[in-house]
Amino acid sequence: AQKITQTQPGMFVQEKEAVTLDCTYDTSDQSYGLFWYKQPSSGEMIFLIYQGSYDEQNATEGRYSLNFQKARKSANLVISASQLGDSAMYFCAMRDRAAGNKLTFGGGTRVLVKP
Amino acid sequence: DSGVTQTPKHLITATGQRVTLRCSPRSGDLSVYWYQQSLDQGLQFLIQYYNGEERAKGNILERFSAQQFPDLHSELNLSSLELGDSALYFCASSPITQGPHTEAFFGQGTRLTVV
Predict the structure, then answer these.
(1) Is A43's CB within 8 Å of B108's CB?
(2) Cβ of A101 and B109 within 8 Å?
(3) By the CB < 8 Å criterion, does B12 face chain A?
(4) Which of A97, A115, B13, B71 is found 20 to 30 A from B100 (Cα to Cα)?
């Protein structure tokens, strides 16, 4: 069965510094998608970035980049130049055909940006 | 704004009651997913519909049911409510391809409190 693991329940980061959120996954499928979502205290789930299993380059979206290491089955999110508004829960998720293309989520990492 | 609309935003009801949560997906999205987010269980997949038909079932209780209507909006019905059903319920939608390489966009969620 597919599984997503986020080993960091919470972390602090200084404003303007970069932070890396860890995510490892497990799937037997060759075709899958990896996603990161942000959940601020208001509760909504905001899509941040996507990486496809066949993509050779790491995905980037503004200050977000995904460090994709396929052989290690890891998909770490890097947030550069952290801002106070980055304080939130961050979820790593995966979709694969074996699981019917539903999104499977990790347990999340809470990030608190300090001024 | 993700384009996915969920109503109501908040719901407080008593144990034993029945409620209906409503979701309007993004324009053109045929897939609708329901998720439950509770403090102890994280984000749990409940059920998926695609163009009116049930496609996948997750950890959905027998007291819960859902359907997707011809206009593609979906409803999640929760009956015989228990205190443990208190959670944030999310609806998400995906575009027509609904494969593993398409992101899902989430509504703002319905926060259900059972008292």
Answers:
(1) yes
(2) no
(3) no
(4) B71
Q: How far is CA B45 from CA A65, A84, A107, B53, B92, in A?
A: 26, 30, 13, 17, 11
Burial B95-109 (b: 16+ CB within 10 A, else e): beebebbbbbbbbbb
For B51-89, what is each residue's pLDDT tens digit?
999 988 998 999 999 999 999 999 999 999 999 999 999
CB B112 within 8 A of CB B83: no
Q: Is B99 on the interface with A (CB under 8 A)?
A: yes
Structure tokens at A64: 């977000």
**Secondary structure of chain B in HEC code, one letter for each residue:** CCCCEEECCEEEECCCCCEEEEEECCCCCCEEEEEEEECCCEEEEEEEEECCEEEEECCCCCCEEEEECCCCCEEEEECCCCHHHCEEEEEEEECCCCCCCCCCEECCCEEEEEC
pLDDT tens-digit profile of A40-85?
999 999 999 999 999 989 999 999 999 999 999 999 999 999 999 9
Taking CB atoms and an 8 Å limit, are A47 and B48 in contact across chains?
Answer: no
